[in-house]
Amino acid sequence: MRRRTIARIIGIQRVLVRYGLDEFIKETHLLRPMRFLFYALPRRRDTSAPIGERIRLALEELGPIFVKFGQAISTRRDLLPLDIADELAKLQDTVPPFPAEEAIRILEGAYGGPLDTIFKRFDTEPFAAASIAQVHTAQLPDGTEVIVKLLRPGVQQQIERDIEVMRMVAGLADRYWRLADRLKPREIVSEYERTIIDELDLMREAANTAQLKRNFAGSDMLYVPEIYWDFCRPEVLVQERIYGIPISDMDALRAAGTNIQLLAENGVEIFFTQVFRHNFFHADMHPGNIFVIVTDPDRPMYAAVDFGIIGTLSPSDQRYLAENFLAFFDQDYHRIAKLHIDSGWVPEGTRVDQLEMAVRTVCEPIFNKPLSEISFAQVLMRLFRVAQRFDVEIQPQMILLHKTLFNIEGLGRELYPELDLWKTAHPVLKRWMSEQLGPRAMLDDLRENLPQLRQTLRELPAVIDYLARKAAAPANEPERQAAAIEQSRIAIAALRRQRNLLIAAVLVAAASALVAVAVLLAGNG
Q: 184 with 143: CB under 8 angstroms?
């Protein structure tokens, strides 16, 4: 174990003792060789506050990396008691800014020259400060107003040190803690590490921003700021400055005459569009990252920033989620249960009727109700209890989506509690599913596979000739015979795949012809 790790562990233990959290250390038998040293340290033990509050205060004192960690795991309501998850959700990046002199030093090092040769104006007073980065306002040489985001000094080393500690403690917890099988400490730390490491590359965030801007080009619902690539570096991000009302400032939005209902409905459509149509969604949608442009109050537009955390899903996960949502909208709980079993998320042999009844019990009471009458936290907790009962596997790739859904729920409650989430989302999903399963989707698949199909057809005579010669060869060498049989099996499987493609092509062509005939008949009629 490294010396810096031991020193950090001692510092962490002092904080845990101060907030009366050392009881968890004793219960899990972690760090037992050093426990007497820890208790010999000066301390002030306070257990008067609820456990969730004490955990939150301890994370705040331990520093920005642990604050981020608390924010990340606050979304894992499948793993945490509800009271602790609610308390951790209060964590905010209230980190003091670092000095302007340090910011200038970082920028001049990144650009390799004096700052006044890069920017026409640079405001040394920080515009905002968070656990990973700090933001300043500036002006480019052509007069464009921009935001300059730069990483905090030493943040990379601090994160590596604290991740090392977290990984070691998670390993001990996994070994000694009786709740480790359910809470999966190693997986939690691994998920957090992947997320926070991505945030340390501001060029990655710039690329995410540029992609989202392309996805919503021409949109009247969401505006994404312009990236100024010539000024971006791995530790510096320069983007267009956004002027809007913070989404959390409801008084200002109402004073501006904002159409709140439309704003809330657009927020739902934006989310489902990102997840299903684009498969590229903003996974850090807390109120500090969302603004509203009210140039036209009747048609307000969202403006989003901070795209360090982006979520994507595999095509199979997209399809699975869409089908689950649509089955829920149709109150088809049998379909939901069947989807879970078919996906392999529940053990083989699970009875569909029992799972269907459990899902119906949770979902039926909230159907067709506005947000004001729904507690998604309680619903998800009940769903997670169902998951535990039926041994449903928690899917790590869904964690960012869960977090984003919680953020959207909070924004929706603040904006327009009467929002009918189901009515707003249903048409978006229906449209997406139609695009995925309709004739156009089949034609796109055929077009994508056409080069492979053409190449296989060219090779088909040679494959048939090869199989014929192998079949005619004397079977006096068992090894060669076995190899030939295996090669033949592979070749036959490839032929079957191409046969299926040919059948699909014929079906698509036939369907297209039928549509054309129907159009002609309708026109003649």
A: no
Question: Is 391 noted as a catalytic residue in this protein?
Answer: no
Element of type H or E holding 138: strand 133-139
DSSP labels, 452-465 = HHHHHHHHHHHHHH
pLDDT in the model for residue 259: 96
Question: How many Cβ atoms from other residues are within 10 Å of residue 524's Cβ?
Answer: 6
Do the Cβ atoms of 121 and 139 come closer than 8 Å? yes
For Cα atoms 478, 484, 488, give the angle at the middle one, nearest 5 degrees: 145
Question: What average pLDDT does the segment 422-431 reach?
Answer: 78
Q: Is the pTM of this model over 0.85?
A: no
Judge whether residue 291 has pLDDT over 90. yes
User: What does the alpha-carbon distance between residue 510 and residue 291 come to, in Å, rounded to a whole number?
Assistant: 50
Closest to 274 measured CA to CA, from 342, 349, 196, 213: 213
Reading the block at residue 277, the tokens are: 């149509």
Average pLDDT over residues 299-304: 96
Mean pLDDT of the chain: 77
- Mean pLDDT across 205-227: 96
CA dist 402 → 14, 391, 397, 399, 407 (Å): 34, 19, 10, 5, 9
Instruction: Identify the active-site residue in 22, 78, 162, 284.
Output: 284
Cα separation of 59 and 71, whole Å? 10
